[in-house]
From TrEMBL:
Catalysis: reaction(s): hydrogencarbonate + H(+) = CO2 + H2O
Span list, region Disordered: 772-797
InterPro entries found in the cross-reference section: Carbonic_anhydrase, Carbonic_anhydrase_CS, Carbonic_anhydrase_sf, SLC26A/SulP_dom, SLC26A/SulP_fam
EC number assigned by the record: 4.2.1.1
Protein name: carbonic anhydrase
Length: 797
């Protein structure tokens, strides 16, 4: 019962007010600020840039990208993923030109966003992106390990590796101890015991490690190299400088910074969206925000910025509700940079190096390796890492992209070809199983595999393919002719969807023509795939079409039935044993001791109505009863339907009773015209008289169907569903179950021409494809709460 009070939509109730947002965003911004300061300083060190550049970039990332970006909870700033690129640019052009490159890259990012190409960056293979970040991480670790050990990092990865043993033999006491202490704290802090107070666990590990070890170094006045700022942040603001020549290298630098920063920002934004249930990111707007941030950061003498997952995840975990948190974190960095910069100069370089070693190591993720290995893309990851570490970032990324494209090309044009000997097949024949796309590059391997089949042997060629080009077709045809001339027998069994069935409707029909192929065999009639059922045997190639097996015009994917060519049932049984029995056996094994179906399903005997296909159900789901006209004569002398209903309710305890009619029903046609005759069929169709009478008197279901142009027969079929539901409801066992709330009644109607199912809701049939249908548990036919069958959720494959 409702009142006159206004109901506030749930979405409005769930939206926090600005006061609630501030109460959450202010403390979250402080946490992010404490994490961002040491990270920004460490990244500046790794980039061979002024330390103030890291703070400038962090402040701009919060204030500009935080305000303009399309990901409300993402936090931007200098990122480890760009350190190698920036260090290379600084070494090649100097800091002023690097700032100009950052400005130009920012403008390019803005153009990316305005032209709505944000999602295009996501088309880059994840294996390349993860490999690039891992390669950068390895490079950082190899260089900063020398600083942790008290030495100097070398010019390249190979030099760092060769010099590492010498560094290990000559450890520089205090610096090494400080760097290792930082690494130990960063690794141990996330593994604190569960009993540790929450406020302790909430202290950011980078802040704790840098602050604690710096205090120790200051208290004991340890003789170690410390950070040198060389002036205030305001003094560090310098305009960018254009290069003196080398414009090609300058353009490559701009493109590299823009693409890497865009990809990393977009991937981070997508990851942040998964961490919270709020507003999703606008990726094009995010690119505009990142571009504006990079433009201003470069103009002020700051590092390039990206969306950073470490700071962003910290922001979400700290309870941030809006972009105010990211903006405020930028404000706190500005205050710190102006008022407290002297504290930064107390930090030992080995401390920042230890922080960078952990950051770099965390860019190499075992979880990514395992995932890529499952998808067969680990080689791309490894090649990208090696390219980034031992050459440069751009070369490594290009190498990874080239390998990724080659692997995709291989999957597209390379077929798996396996030969099974008679001892390994049910029929005792040789089997040649071809899976994938069979194209000309696979012909040499196909020839070798076919050469393993002895002359004169019976062989089945299973083409589990989605594409077959003309060259492969010619080779197979020639081999089959030679093998049969030598006394052998060949059966070509086309299992895959090669796009042949609909090619007869095309005008060109060339080998590259790709059109929707036939449905799987368990959904298609025998005439489509059995050569012995309304199709001629053999393997033919019609003019203008490629590779049609055992088919006449209008048929495709036919299986030569061999000795059972005139018996489609036996052919179908053999196909079931060969391909489906092993797959369905585990489910039937679980059902061997009994059944517990979900629904009693009463439908017509019409061969075009296949209940398990229409309901996406399998063994054990439906207790099916079929008769002419899907009638429920439970009140007559025919006890078959009544007995089935009682067994379903009292023994199997099904919770749902379904009546399903269909279009073009022959029984309804005969009942409407009175052509059932005097025999058994005529007496049986007497059970439809009530439906005919209700239809003639203007049943509401018929009236609604007529407005949609349904024919008289189809209107009657729909009315018949409602009437049979009412008859079922009058059965004593059903009435008792409804009263006890143990069962509900469902009406369905299947339109054969469109292959669509509708559900009876009240006085009309609505499409079953709708997301939400009635789901009541009891009642009478026609009640919207009881006339809909639930559509079970299916995990995507």
């Amino acid at each position: 019962m409702t009142t006159g009070a206004t109901t506030v939509p749930s979405s409005d109730r769930d939206t926090p007010s600005w006061r609630e947002k501030l109460r959450a965003d202010i403390p979250a911004s402080l946490v992010v600020f404490l994490v961002a300061v040491p990270l920004s300083l460490g990244i500046a060190v790794a980039s061979d840039a002024p330390l103030t550049a890291g703070l400038i970039a962090a402040a701009v990332g919060g204030l500009v990208a935080g305000a303009l970006g399309g990901s409300p909870l993402q936090v931007s700033g200098p990122a480890a993923g760009l350190t190698v690129v920036v260090a290379d640019l600084v070494g090649r052009f100097g800091w002023g030109v690097t700032c100009a490159i950052t400005v130009a890259a920012g403008v390019l990012q803005i153009l990316f966003g305005l032209t709505k190409t944000g999602r295009a960056a996501l088309a880059i293979s994840p294996a390349v992106v993860h490999g690039m970040l891992a390669g950068i991480g390895v490079t950082i670790v190899l260089g900063q390990l020398h600083v942790v050990l008290g030495g100097e990092q070398q010019d390249d990865a190979i030099a760092n590796i060769l010099a590492l043993p010498g560094q290990l033999l000559s450890l520089h006491g205090a610096a090494t101890a400080l760097g290792l202490a930082v690494i130990a704290i960063l690794l141990a802090w996330p593994r604190l015991p569960q009993g540790t107070p929450g406020w302790v666990r909430g202290i950011p590990a980078p802040l704790l490690a840098v602050a604690l070890v710096t205090v120790i170094a200051s208290v004991f006045a340890l003789p170690v190299e410390r950070v040198e700022i060389g002036g205030s942040v305001l003094e560090a603001i310098t305009p960018p400088v254009l290069p003196d020549g080398q414009w090609g290298a300058f353009a490559v630098g701009v493109l590299t910074i823009a693409i890497i920063a865009s990809v990393e920002s977009l991937l981070s934004a997508v990851a942040v969206d998964r961490m919270h249930g709020g507003q999703k990111s606008n990726l094009d707007r995010e690119l505009v925000g990142q571009g504006a941030g990079n433009t201003l950061s470069g103009l002020l003498g700051g590092l390039p910025i990206t969306g950073v997952i470490v700071r962003s995840s910290t922001n979400v975990a700290a309870g941030a509700k809006s972009r105010v948190s990211a903006i405020l974190h930028g404000v706190w960095i500005v205050v710190f940079s102006v008022a407290l910069l002297g504290l930064v100069q107390q930090i030992p370089m080995a401390v920042l190096a230890g922080l960078l070693v952990v950051i770099g190591a965390r860019l190499v993720k075992l979880a990514h390796m395992r995932e890529l290995h499952r998808h067969g893309e680990l080689p791309v990851y490894v090649v990208t890492i090696l390219g980034v570490v031992f050459t440069d970032l751009l070369t490594g990324v290009i190498a990874g992209l080239v390998l990724a494209l080659l692997l995709v090309l291989r999957r597209v044009v390379w077929a798996s070809i396996e030969v099974q000997e008679p001892s390994a097949t049910p029929e005792g024949d040789w089997h040649v199983v071809v899976e994938g796309a069979l194209c000309f590059p696979s012909i040499p391997r196909l020839a070798r595999r076919l050469g393993q089949v002895p002359a004169g042997a019976p062989v089945v060629i299973d083409l589990v393919t989605d594409y077959l080009d003309h060259a492969a077709y010619d080779h197979l045809q020639e081999w089959i002719e030679r093998h049969e001339q030598g006394g052998g027998h060949v059966r070509v069994d086309e299992v895959g969807t090669m796009g042949l069935l609909d090619r007869r409707t095309t005008t060109n029909g060339g080998p590259g023509d790709r059109r929707p192929g036939p449905v799987p065999r368990f959904l298609s009639p025998w005439s489509v795939w059995q050569a012995g059922h309304e199709a001629r045997r053999g393997w033919t190639m019609e003019s203008g079409h490629d590779a049609q097996f055992g088919v006449g015009a209008g048929h495709g994917h036919a299986l030569d039935a061999g000795e059972d060519a005139d018996d489609p049932i036996l052919t179908g049984l053999r196909e079931y044993h060969r391909r489906a029995a092993g797959l369905v056996a585990p489910y039937l094994s679980d059902l061997a001791d009994g059944q517990s179906p979900y629904a009693f399903f009463l439908t017509c005997s019409d061969s075009r109505v296949v209940p398990n296909v229409l309901t996406s159900s399998g063994p054990g789901d439906l207790f099916t009863v079929r008769n002419v006209g899907n009638l429920a004569p439970v009140e007559s002398t025919d006890d078959s339907v009544g007995a089935s209903v009682e067994y379903a309710l009292d023994v199997l305890e099904v919770p749902t009773l379904v009546v399903c009619g269909h279009s073009g029903c022959g029984a309804m046609t005969a009942a409407l015209r009175g052509t059932g005759g005097e025999g058994v069929l005529g007496r049986w169709l007497g059970g439809a008289r009530e439906s005919v009478s209700r239809w003639r008197s203007g049943h509401a279901v018929a009236a609604e169907a007529a407005t949609r142009g349904a024919s008289d027969v189809d209107q009657l079929a729909m009315v018949n569903v409602a009437v049979q539901l009412e008859r079922l409801a009058r059965h004593p066992a059903v009435a008792r179950a409804i009263e006890e709330g143990r069962v509900r009644l469902v009406g369905l109607y299947f339109d054969i021409a469109t292959a669509r199912m509708s559900v009876l809701e009240g006085d009309r049939f609505i499409p079953a494809s709708r997301d939400r249908l009635g789901a009541g548990a009891s009642g009478t036919p026609g009640d919207p709460a009881t006339s809909a069958i639930p559509i079970p959720a299916v995990d995507p494959v």
